[in-house]
Specification:
By secondary structure, the chain is α/β, with parallel strands linked by helices. It has 31 helices and 15 strands. It has a five-stranded mixed beta sheet, with helices on both faces. The radius of gyration is 33 Å and the shape is globular. The mean pLDDT is 94.
Length: 715
């Protein structure tokens, strides 16, 4: 990678140039983000997975920029206009906008008023006027009255069109206007459709709205731009046309002396036309795009953090689980799963109106709990959730059997997906959905990776942001989470395995087929027998795969096979076997890390090995916690301002957090109501709250008509 790109990335991410350079080299060698951040700390200087992912993001951007530069240089060269100075300017670019500004005068374009004027032979007149090489433009224009140019006025109009376009394609002019527009306000107004259409009323707050671009919150900008796309709002930037025209005219004239007022008037007219017809619309779009990109990045950051928290949510682990997809008229769909999440039984009970078969439902649930030795119960948080929770808690349950409310978001998407059809070809969507609810209690990560993150209910304007950037962020987040936790090689689904470093869908399928045929993996080394899984793939994936009860205990740890010899040496030096060393805190505490530094394995790697030996295969996720809503609150009508209630955070956005308080409608803690919890300075909800966090809130306001609940976060 070129030094200019390395310098840009290091400054952008506040890391050292050598760290960027080494990361790029590792990417080029086919290494993945999780592998680099976990097992190549000496080369990265200890960069975490998020930082490595950022370097990968910018590395990919500059790879594409290099291709773009080559294309641009080729086009300009074919036109015979490529000078050494222009080549250097292009090659030294690190910002896409600057590169496109340089290319703009040479870019093939559709037919414009300027191209028509050039075809009529008016470019020499425009050149003379632009270079102040003519005293009286009308006298000079007479020489060009011929053919399609009917008179002097037509000649001057054509020359002005050429000058206007030339100005609009001048990089310095465009950058001057960008600087002005960035300091202005965005203004939105209602269109006729916005005022008359019921769908437009959701943008009522933006029907006559303005705010400085530099201060507008990402969610407000995205809402305004969505309203514009849907035809309910008009949007502009309130730059003053006269002041902008004066600025451009001054910049154009300050090194020129006009021999006549007539020429100055022609130039001024060309400048004003350039601004109003070409520059203002173009720069407005550019600046709105620029600020939208910033809003996209922030929204995607929040979405990515929400997804990370969701995927790393506490699991209850391998417990025999009853999962309930609650409902009224259509009943409660119940499934019973074994400790590995396999479906054992399913049926429907009707404890709620209109059937009200409570006694029969109690008998059925009690029988299933006893017959399948149920250890945990998961209840979906959709329709009839509170009523079902109350119903279940009235049934005597075995000691230690706890009841959990689980988010249903995405369960219906999963139930109709190809993945679900492959897993349960003979079951209908209601059974598949209930299974998903149960499995996401047992192991949220393993189940939620099967669902498109955009369907999990934790995003903010996810369909309005840059979809490629969103996909990159979410894919990276899923990969990082899967590899942070590690995957059981003998039980993981093909879908979960596909997210393991270096594997992917094809190899994941091969692993599952080999596992089924061979009866399972006894060691990590067995992976080398999987068809099409070569040395590079093994290097990338081995450290993230776990084999419980393996002969070598390191196979159930995050110690990479390339470092097994180091652990064996540690054990030999202590006069014990590797098996005796693993998990022995006393022995491990006496090991001097610096003694085992060798080759590419420095202190960071040795210290990681020692941490892992102390607690091999430790799941970094917390344990799941039981939660109960207020017993006397079931409907939004039960709420009264001033009430203090327990709640669960269901979504976090830039403007606040949504909380489930058990009344079917989520309440909102606006950022302004987080100060009450002792938060000082600017409030970033994603940094003070976590998804599924248990909180206490007080009710501020209840709007029954719009079903909106305003909450305050309590300490």
């Amino acid at each position: 990678m070129k030094e200019i790109y390395i310098k840009f990335i290091s400054e952008k991410l506040s890391v050292r140039g050598w760290q960027v350079e080494n990361c790029v080299e590792l990417f080029e060698e086919g290494n993945t983000i999780p592998f680099i951040s976990r097992y190549r700390k000496e080369k990265t200087g200890g960069l975490d997975d998020v930082e490595v992912a950022e370097i990968k993001h910018w590395s990919d951007i500059f790879d594409e920029m290099e291709k773009r530069k080559a294309s641009i240089l080729n086009v300009i060269s074919e036109q015979g206009k490529l000078t050494d100075g222009l080549r250097k300017q292009i090659e030294d670019c690190v910002v896409s906008g600057e590169l496109e500004d340089l290319y703009l005068p040479y870019r093939p374009k559709r037919r414009t008023r300027a191209t028509a004027a050039k075809e009529a032979g008016l470019e020499p007149l425009a050149d003379k006027m632009y270079d102040v090489a003519v005293a009286d433009p009308r006298i000079e224009a007479k020489k060009y009255v011929k053919g399609d140019v009917k008179d002097v006025d037509a000649a001057l109009a054509g020359a002005r069109d050429i000058i206007a376009e030339r100005l609009s394609e001048t990089a310095s002019v465009r950058e001057t206007l960008r600087g002005i527009f960035r300091t202005r306000r965005i203004v939105s107004k209602a269109t006729k459709a916005g005022k008359e259409s019921p769908d437009g009323l959701k943008y009522k707050g933006y029907f006559d709205y303005s705010e400085p671009l530099a201060r507008i919150a990402p969610h407000r900008l995205l809402a305004i731009l969505r309203g514009q796309d849907e035809g309910f709002l008009t949007v502009k930037i309130d730059a003053d046309p006269e002041k902008c025209g004066n600025k451009l005219y001054y910049d154009f004239c300050h090194e020129r002396r006009y021999p006549s007022q007539a020429l100055a008037t022609e130039i001024r007219e060309a400048v004003d036309d350039s601004y109003s017809r070409l520059l203002s619309p173009s720069i407005t779009n550019e600046i709105l795009k620029e600020f939208k990109e910033k809003a996209d990045i922030e929204s995607i950051r929040v979405f990515g953090e929400n997804l990370r928290q969701l995927l790393l949510a506490p699991p209850v682990g391998q417990k025999r689980t009853m999962a309930i997809d609650p409902g009224f008229r259509n009943g409660c769909k119940i499934v019973c799963l074994d400790a590995q999440g396999n479906l054992l039984h399913h049926e429907i009970v009707y404890p709620h109106p209109p059937q009200n078969e409570k006694v029969k439902a109690i008998t059925s649930v009690s029988r299933m709990v006893q017959e399948y030795d149920i250890q945990a119960i998961a209840i979906g948080n959709g329709t009839a959730s509170r009523e079902t929770e109350d119903f279940i808690k009235r049934i005597p349950l075995p000691e230690g059997c706890k009841v959990y409310v689980v988010s249903e978001d995405g369960a219906s998407i999963y139930s109709a997906s190809e993945v679900a059809r492959e897993e349960f070809p003979d079951e209908d969507v209601t059974v598949r959905g209930a299974v998903s609810i149960g499995r996401r209690l047992m192991d949220p990560l393993a189940e939620l990776v099967k669902i498109d993150p955009k369907s999990l209910g934790v995003g903010q304007y996810q369909y309005d942001v840059d979809q490629n950037l969103l996909k990159e962020k979410l894919d990276n987040t899923v990969v990082i989470c899967v590899n942070t936790v590690g995957v059981n090689l003998n039980t993981a689904s093909s879908y979960l395995l596909s997210y393991v470093s270096g594997i992917g869908p094809a190899l994941a399928s091969s692993i599952v087929k080999y596992r089924a045929a061979s009866g399972g993996f006894e060691s990590r080394a067995d992976l080398m027998s999987v068809p099409r899984l070569g040395a590079k793939a093994f290097e990338q994936c081995a450290g993230f795969l776990r084999i419980t009860n393996a002969a070598n205990p390191l196979d159930n740890s995050a110690v990479h096979p390339e470092c097994y010899h180091i652990v064996d040496k540690m054990a030999a030096d202590l006069g014990v076997s590797t098996k005796e060393l693993v998990g022995n805190q006393k022995l491990i505490s006496g090991i001097k890390p610096e003694k085992y530094v060798e080759g590419d394995f420095g202190l960071p790697t040795i210290n990681d090995i020692l941490k892992e030996l102390a607690k091999p295969g430790l799941d970094p996720r917390e344990a799941a916690q039981e939660f109960s809503f207020a017993e006397d609150v079931h409907e939004i009508g039960d709420l009264v301002p001033g009430m203090e209630l327990p709640g669960i955070i269901t979504n976090i956005t830039a403007f606040g957090a949504f909380v489930d308080i058990g009344v079917h409608e989520n309440g909102l803690i606006h950022v302004s109501q987080m100060k009450a919890a002792g938060v000082k300075g600017p409030v970033d909800p994603s940094k003070i709250l976590k998804l599924h966090q248990h909180v206490r809130v007080s009710v501020l306001q209840v709007d029954l008509d719009r079903k909106r609940i305003s909450l305050r976060l309590l300490k």
